[in-house]
Fold this sequence. Notes:
Layout: H1 8-37, H2 55-68, H3 70-73, H4 108-117, E1 119-120, E2 129-131, H5 140-152, H6 156-168
Antiparallel strand pairs: 1-2
Helix pairs in contact: 2-5, 4-5
Amino acid sequence: MEIPRRSNNLATLEGCLMRRTRYRWLLVITMALTACGGQNVSPAAPTNSYPTLDPAQITQGRQVYVQRCASCHGPKAEGAPNWATPGPDGLFPAPPHDDTGHTWHHSDRVLYESIRDGMNDPLRPGSPLRMPAWGSTLSDGEIRAIISYFKSLWLAEHRQYQWEETLKDFKPTPTPPS
């Protein structure tokens, strides 16, 4: 049994139709890319979506900071001298909380809990507290005010980064009843 073959004319016609279809799609894609190409299409610039700070809370935070924190972290939150170099005991001095440090890398929850509960050397589990726990001395509002004061020292892009970290890490910190 012989399989009928297509005539050359039919094959030529099918080839022509396929080329036309491809040409039309290529034209549609080119037109779409041209339409987009005339515009300045780039990723959206980050907006400053972080919350504004309350000036009264910043003032309160600075006052509490000067009373409780400045003796170790410096009067302007600049950190202890040579804070990035370990001492003879291998431990680092108190870090800055201004833009030059890493405080802005942490979420509000982490900052709050570090102030409330104190902090040991994160590279040495079980080590004694390097920063005292202030939870029994400072009120919830005072701790939050200190954090607002820190934020007032940071560049806008650091505030934005810190806010995004806070949103990713959002676990409400219980506020004790007043």
